[in-house]
Amino acid sequence: MFLHPPGEWQKMFNTKLTKQADFHGDENTKVMVDMMQTEGEFEFYEDKENFTTVLRLPYKGSASMIIVLPDEGKMKEVEDSISTSHFKHWIDAMEEG
What we know:
alpha+beta, three-stranded antiparallel sheet, two-stranded antiparallel sheet, 5 strands, 35% strand, flat
């Protein structure tokens, strides 16, 4: 089953490239998910102070999906400290860059 938030991607994913694969939530957790693939340029921000890389995948219109990728081994730190001010900082930084 292919699940994604409602809306239409600004840059569509090729459904022929979507494949089932393992997603590793942490060193002890893995689940089978649909992996989407695409090529292109996307906004991202490396927040070394908060141990994250943030990726923005835009939908048509004004909405976007924000993906927060903790640095390896830093999931707990990110989970314990993430806040709305982090999201505002990341979005502002991507818009400035």
